[in-house]
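Reopening: structure tokens for the S-adenosyl-L-homocysteine complex, inputs below.
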Amino acid sequence: MKLPAHHWPEFQPGWVWLCGAGPGDAGLLTLHALNGLSQADVVVHDALVGPEILAMAPQAELIHAGKRGGKPSAKQTDISLKLVELAREGKRVLRLKGGDPFVFGRGGEEGAALKAAGVPMRIIPGISAGIGGLAYAGIPVTHRDVNQSVTFITGHDQTAETPQTLDWQAISKASEVLVIYMGMKHIGQIAGALLAAGRPAGEPVAVVTDATLPSQRVLETTLGALEADIAAAGMTPPAIICIGRVVEKRAVLNWLGT
Ligand code: SAH
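Re-run output (same inputs, fresh job):
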């Protein structure tokens, strides 16, 4: 694809571009990401980056960094070391991560490792699943009628257990809208903690799996019925879970009709 006229950065050998690929739909890549894909010697990508996007770098070697929730954190060090090694070989390294690299994507850790190793980098933000993925389900993360803040939460900590360190009492009071990434494994526990903290059982919730992809599915339910309804619908990760009255806006904004 030809990029429109602009002073696009040249991908220098020995550099790493730490780049977001967006939530899935290839049309949600940024032009900087597309520019990186067209020049990279090697693309080190996550499991969530689909084949349609990777096909935009036919000249590049593809390395699957395949990290999904639940793997030991030692693997993260391996990925960072691999990025440093490839850069030192003089490669143009595109590190391509689902969504935005700095949103629950450990991009900060990889960037710090590159910095410590003296490897030059560019950071390319992406559309995060918790915003863009919900938009494809017809859910605005903020709406003037509903909320003046949003809280983004990860349902896993580094050990892939529920974040016991999270203060669910505080979270439940923090915002009218909560957006949970990686929440499926522990959804019963998370919903229970929020109910115990006073969020109403009838509060609307949406679960969006494979957001922005042709396989996207949306389940509308309530906090009280969440765990049972996810099981009944047979929904599996990756999923974004949105809790709050913005979910009701789907009635008008569900442009895809999923
Ligand atoms: N950096 C990514 C998030 C990585 S964590 C971002 O900004 O979007 C991985 C989690 O993101 C998944 O477990 C899921 O909760 C969410 N996610 C990513 N892509 C998704 C998609 N297409 N549909 C639903 N959830 C998605």
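The pocket of S-adenosyl-L-homocysteine is lined by residues 23-24, 48, 97-100, 103-105, 128-129, 133, 181-182, 208-212, 237-240 (CB under 6 Å). The chain has a mean pLDDT of 93. Marking as resolved unless the reporter disagrees.
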